[in-house]
Amino acid sequence: MEEGRSESEALHVTLAETGKIFPVQPHESVLAAALNAGIELAHECKTGFCGSCRVRILEGAIAYAEDPIGLSDQERGCGFALACQARAQTNLVIEAPLMPTDRPEPTDITAQVVSVDQVCGNITRLRLSPVGGMPAFLPGQYVDVVTQSGATRSFSIASAPDEAVIELHIRTIPGGMFTAGIIPALKCGETVALHGPHGLFRLRPDDFRPLVLVATGTGIAPLRAMLAALRADPDCPPVALYWGMREQSELYLADEIATLGAGLEDFTFVPVLSRAAEGWSGRRGYVQDAVIEDLPDLSEHALYLCGSPAMIAAARGRFLEVGASVNHIYVDSFHFAHNL
């Protein structure tokens, strides 16, 4: 706290890019104060998981009630903070991205079930045909499935905008009301209510960098959408996709990924198994380690990470250690609720 200031007195935050100033109260996060002032700083989960609200502290000091999982030690050492969790201790000057203006507006969507396929063990591939045509969305975004009770469940879109269906990959949570109850009972022709698209995780074609796509589990879904969309890009850069699973039988999308990648000029697909059987001839271990073994210098790459918070945190830290740009690491971190 600044000397001579009372605990109830507001501080001020200045945006370095525009010079705009907004007050922040002692009980507010930097993000909450910005939103209250009508300034749409980039954000998504507001819980410290996703890292979408990352800002750089140029002047001043902040504090956290608890260290957010979405910020690595390397990022913190470079002056970055998560606005959704950071509390100002002094007046601040920050560099902060605003919400992108190219995002399609979320809307209510009615879609018919085209197919419900159990593709492996506990993963279902749900294909939906939107009534009235495909809504606008960006590769990497997600939709909410709205139940009859009004509850929502969020799933990344696995299909590209120019494909005929909205495809979702859904992992069954044992005892889950939605994934274990509603999804298996869906029939072709039934309607499903959706709302979206949502999310800041999206393909950034203006980066002009080689792409490294990294997923674990059903985190492959938005990366499949990106890969499908890249087929239409005549200037598509080199693409390397690393997919971590436990066992070979879980690589439910491997053949399709290889087929999509064959349509690109420079594509590498590396499945990585953490519990591979003796007969597996491919890569073993953790997916982030495989990336660094192949690409020991990531300073010129754009990296897209999708998976559990633990994988995201570990991968982001390792990638920064080998030179990855903090401004070119894009993440979609998810965790499972017990009643899904």
From TrEMBL:
Q: Where is the 2Fe-2S ferredoxin-type domain?
A: 11-100
* Boundaries of every FAD-binding FR-type domain copy: 106-204
- Domain of life from the UniProt record: Bacteria
Please give the SUPFAM superfamilies that the UniProt record associates with this protein: 2Fe-2S ferredoxin-like, Ferredoxin reductase-like, C-terminal NADP-linked domain, Riboflavin synthase domain-like
Q: Which cofactor does it need?
A: [2Fe-2S] cluster
Pfam families per the record? Answer: FAD_binding_6, Fer2, NAD_binding_1
Q: Which GO terms describe its molecular function?
A: 2 iron, 2 sulfur cluster binding; oxidoreductase activity
Q: Which Gene3D superfamilies does its entry note?
A: 3.10.20.30, Nucleotide-binding domain of ferredoxin-NADP reductase (FNR) module, Translation factors
Under what name is this protein listed?
A: CDP-6-deoxy-delta-3,4-glucoseen reductase
